[in-house]
Design brief:
alpha/beta, 11 strands, 43% helix
């Protein structure tokens, strides 16, 4: 037990662990060590950010995708999905609603839909940037050439979310078809950071074939790469995919890893994800109590929310929805959190 306490203390104080120390912590942690890590992560979050929770308005603008990731409910080969694509007018209307509700960050998330060309995305980003100059625009639109990322950045997108899903190349190959190589994903992440985006990455907890070594690879990758944002959530199976019968990932392990990532990267923006909120009814609150400081209520039109189904039983109503922001504020106030009406930049990028 004493060596576990020493490892936990090292993570809390020095914000780094060796491969062997991560393995020891992950494989032998007990309730006492888990709570020690959790409480330290929340204290560190309070020290840097206070009790602020940054709110991003999520717009899921298309569920059409040319990629065929084995875990994803909107993969190209899933013929059972009812596909949709929002118009530019609908997307701008979502931004208007979000802005009037007090949101100052918009997250445009979608599958890799061929209709949304580089030109269309640049035009859309430019229009939003012009209308809402005090807002941050985040894109989550997958893999592109460096030149495209540069054009999106010039148009006004400042943040980009692209999960690595796993930093272990062999594991990556088990989650994706051969025409979606690990090297491409990593090159995209390097390009995004080099261009100057506030870059977000992350991984699935408990995805098929994941081992403790895979998780350690992810944690070491995050420490090397030093993203401004990290999104993790439990793997949740989706119908009509190769992994539909696989076991869901652990929400308990996800919460522990949120705390561990907070201590490893103290200034990171760390969402309490929708997947965590789907896995357990108090997932979002527990995420915040474990060191998360971002939530992303849904701004998408209600008619499409259940169609953007990356996994089964996704929550998309109630306080997960942007139209219930006031209820969300009251819910968070009970735990002494406040909803920040701001862009919520990573400290190193604050404007």
């Amino acid at each position: 037990m004493s060596d576990l306490r020493e490892i936990a203390e090292k993570l809390i104080v020095e914000h780094t662990l060796s491969r062997e120390e991560w393995q020891r912590l992950l494989e032998h942690r007990d309730r006492e060590i888990t709570e020690r890590i959790r409480s330290a992560a929340r204290r560190e979050t309070d020290r840097i950010f206070g009790r602020q929770v940054f709110v991003r308005g999520l717009i899921e603008f298309t569920n059409i995708c040319k990629k065929d990731c084995y875990y994803c409910g909107i993969r190209k080969s899933n013929s059972c999905v009812e596909r949709y694509r929002l118009t530019e007018e609908e997307i701008l209307s979502c931004c208007k609603d979000g802005y009037e509700a007090g949101l100052r960050t918009f997250v445009l998330q979608g599958g890799e839909d061929g209709y949304f060309t580089e030109e269309r995305i640049c035009s859309l980003v430019s229009e939003i940037h012009t209308k809402y100059q005090d807002c941050a625009i985040t894109l989550s639109v997958g893999e592109w050439k460096r030149e495209s990322y540069e054009r999106f950045f010039s148009a006004g997108a400042e943040r980009f979310l692209l999960r690595q899903e796993t930093a272990n190349a062999e594991h990556y190959g088990k989650l994706h078809p051969a025409n979606q190589p690990y090297e491409t994903r990593m090159e995209c992440l390097r390009n995004l950071k080099d261009i100057g985006y506030q870059t977000g990455c992350g991984f699935l907890v408990g995805s098929p074939y994941q081992t403790t070594d895979c998780i350690i690879e992810d944690l070491l990758f995050l420490e090397r790469f030093r993203p401004q944002m990290v999104g993790i959530g439990p793997f949740l199976p989706a119908k009509n995919t190769p992994f539909e019968a696989k076991k869901a990932g652990s929400s308990e392990l996800t919460l522990f890893l949120l705390s561990a990532i907070r201590l490893s990267l103290p200034e990171v923006l760390l969402p309490a994800t929708t997947a965590l909120g789907t896995a357990r009814s108090d997932g979002r609150l527990q995420g915040l109590l474990h060191g998360a400081n971002v939530i992303m209520p849904n701004l998408s039109p209600t008619r499409v929310r259940d169609k953007y189904a990356l996994y089964d039983n996704k929550v998309h109503s109630g306080n997960e929805a942007a139209e219930h922001l006031e209820a969300l504020r009251k819910e968070l106030e009970k735990e002494e959190f406040t909803v920040a009406i701001s862009r919520g930049d990573s400290p190193g990028f604050a404007k």
